[in-house]
Amino acid sequence: MTDNEDPKKGKDNRGTGTLVCGYPLSIFFIVVNEFCERFSYYGMRAVLVLYFKYFLRWDDDLATSIYHVFVALCYLTPILGAIVADSWLGKFKTIIYLSIVYAIGQVAMAVSAVHDITDADRDGSPDDMTFHVVLSMVGLFLIALGTGGIKPCVAAFGGDQFADHQEKQRRTFFSVFYLCINGGSLLSTIITPILRAQECGIYTKQKCYSLAFGVPAALMVVALVVFIVGSGMYYKAEPQGNIMLDVCKCIGFAVKNRYRHRSEQHPKRKHWMDWEEKYEKLLIAQIKMVLKVLFLYIPLPMFWTLFDQKGSRWTLQATAMDGDFGLLVIQPDQMQTVNPILILTLVPIMDSVIYPLIKKCGLNFTPLKRMTVGMMMAAIAFVCAALVQLQIDQTLPTFPSASQSQLKLLNMGSNQVTVTLPGNDPLLLPAAQASDEFFTFDLEIIRVSIGSPEETKYIPLAKEKRQTLLIPSNIADEWLLTDDLTAKPEEGNNAIRFINGMNAAVNVSTPAAHFGLIESFYYSNYSQITNNYSQITNKVHHTIQSGSQSCEYSRDFGFGSSYTLFIPSTLIFGQNCQESVTAAEDIKPNSAHMALQIPQYFFITAGEVMFSVTGLEFSYSQAPSNMKAVLQAGWLFTVAIGNFIVLIVAEVAKIRKRWVEYVLFASLLVAVCFIFSIMAHFYTYTDPTEIEAQFRKKVDKDDEDDKSQHEKAEFEMVKKDSFKSHDDEDEYEHDKTKQSRM
Fold first, then answer.
1. Is residue 716 part of a domain?
2. pTM of the model
3. Residues 6 or more apart whose Cβ sits within 8 Å of residue 275
4. What is the pLDDT of residues 543-582, one digit of tens each?
5. Which of 522, 574, 614, 638 has its CA 20 to 30 A from that of 123?
6. Are residues 181 and 307 in the same domain?
């Protein structure tokens, strides 16, 4: 039984099986499969760059580079999938086999994110990071092979389920199909970041990347099972051969033949494809039309270079921002949901309002002009991103360089003191208060003078470090020097420590961390307080205990801050004790709000609608009937190249200022947009159907002429044979008469 035969009837069963509301029952399995698969892919991809940065401990550039290599592979493998499906296995088997590969890859990613596997000392950090890196890279390769391989097959396989008289149902199916893509993308980018923010683990609790990858893996298994369940209802077309291979062979033969006849003695031909003499002229004409469109594709990768950074650079940018929207706290990777939401909003608005309005104004807003405007929109989006980055940079602390040290002062006494530091005016430091800022020094030892009568001490400083000098209530006592953080806390968390200025030890704890027993006039280490994104309020509650007495202290620390909380000797335990605890801000919380990213998401999405949607429609309209897959492959190839460009810039250019990088990308796209507009100006729109009809008409005419000439030749031959026969008879009669006379 061939692949296109019905398992029971052994023939084409399209339109004759079970129908639900006029649609083949089989397509419902395909739609559910697509929704689950897209949820799986976009859910995993939403948290991927943060997994690289915070779990594998890669820097921003390496995390960005590997992310875009993965995306590029996802858009290269569809070419392989199309060739395998059309030339060997057929769409059904290709989807089954590659979905299995896909599911294995997702499971590998989930396992690679389980930190307890190699955490032998149970400190919360993997001991053998190589295991996690290798397993995750294998998983990503399998996912790229799977998702890319089935990409050109699923939609086409769904379209195959409809008979020729079900054209209306087929169009509706494709609309629902692409709605499922956006629906799966939207839900997954909301849900998986929430799962990532949870804490899980066998021995220690860490951010739950394994759950964030595990749910997409489960959805991929569901997608595979659902697709297999419907296998008995599918129409399975037999592989017909892949047109891309014929196109490549034809182009290769033309190039080879042109090279052989490169000498001047051979006359030039109008088009280099005219050197192809092996294949049909219709195929050559179709390839010429395809090459004409592919030439326009040359500048397009630059758009994708900018567009796909939503999931990398922009997500990393959001980690340094404030995600508190009042009733809702947004995680950095959840900002990506703005894109599918805007797509679902802008597509109908553009089609129903904007484009018709432009047409009414008498403007010829051709597809290529739309694409040009879309590229400009993407450039504007990156200008917005650069402005946001400048705003973020202004809020970031300035840490000491290799030759510098930074010092903050904390007065632990109950009286204000005057402190004199080298190169600075005398500073009046109130009781139980810290200096507002860090003082920067290039010296290794500084002279600090305090009080009247003046008490002077020499304080050794550590290069490239921030430190806090704890000034005791009795100046003659020991002065302590503590090490402070020299980097902002990651993932929007807050770093908190306590300094005990009381005469008795205290015990400080929170639901998220335990600071332990802090001795008198001493300090605790910093503890990372994880922000709970699922709660409306971000307040952290602390319990300070000394003997049988306790004090409840709560505070909203924001995102990405570092605080030193000082417990003064004057603390009175009880209901109002919170007012006595002093909070010194070592690192300011993120003050640039994530809402600032909305304009850049709006412009990049508007650009996507005008560029991507229009570009696909343009390519489809300009492609010959049997070459649409070739242009689709070319379109996906531009996406892959665009992601490789990000890799080059991130790893080679090494631009330190992120806003400069954004401006560079925007400038490059503007330049490319200018080139594309010139190319578009000289492009002549064609009607492939009309050209193909003309060729077929010409072929038919040539066939008729050949037939007519053949019939004429046969008639002449018969006539000639008739005359010859008549002459032979006359000659025979003449000879016979002559003999009788003789």
1. no
2. 0.83
3. 254, 255, 257, 258, 261, 269
4. 888 888 889 888 888 888 999 999 998 888 877 888 889 9
5. 522
6. no
In which domain, by residue range, is 612 found? 280-395+590-682
Distance CA 619, CA 631 (A): 7
CA 643 – CA 302 distance, rounded (Å): 9
Residue 90 located in a structural domain? yes
Task: Summarize pLDDT for 180-227 with one digit per residue, the tens.
Answer: 888 888 999 999 999 998 888 888 778 899 999 999 999 999 999 999
Are 40 and 148 within one domain? yes
The SS3 of residue 627 is coil
Based on the fold, state whether residues 560 and 490 are members of the same structural domain. yes
On whether the CB atoms of residues 619 and 629 are closer than 8 A, the answer is no
SS3 assignment, position 372: helix
Partnered with residue 585 across adjacent β-strands are 563
Residue type (1 letter), 721:
D
Q: Cα separation of 197 and 33, whole Å?
A: 27
Q: How many CA atoms lie within 13 A of 351 on its CB side?
A: 10
Check residue 3 and give its pLDDT.
Answer: 42
Contact 419, 448 (CB under 8 A): yes
DSSP 3-state of 208: coil
CATH of the domain at 380: 1.20.1250.20
Same domain, 31 and 120: yes
Q: Quote the CA–CA distance of 163 and 243 in Å, as a whole number.
A: 23
Q: Please identify, among 682, 714, 736, the residue that sits at the C-terminal boundary of a domain.
A: 682
With respect to residue 434, please indicate whether it lies within any of the assigned structural domains. yes
Which pair of tokens denotes residue 451? 């009080």
Integer CA distances (angstroms), 171 to 113, 153, 182, 610, 732, in order: 41, 17, 17, 21, 78
Residue 123 resides in a domain: yes
Q: Rounded CA gap, 505 and 545, in Å? A: 9
Contact indicator for 379, 669 with CB cutoff of 8 Å: yes
Residue 161: phi and psi, rounded to 5, are: -75, -10
Which residue, of 628, 653, 682, is where some domain finishes?
A: 682
Rounded to whole angstroms, the Cα distance separating 411 from 309 reads: 47
Shared domain for 532 and 638, answered yes or no, is no
219-228, 394-403, 714-723, range with the lowest pLDDT: 714-723
DSSP codes joined into one string, 209-226: HHHHHHHHHHHHHHHHHH
What is the 8-class DSSP label of residue 560? S
CB atoms within 10 A of CB 228: 15
Domain shared by 70 and 201, yes or no: yes
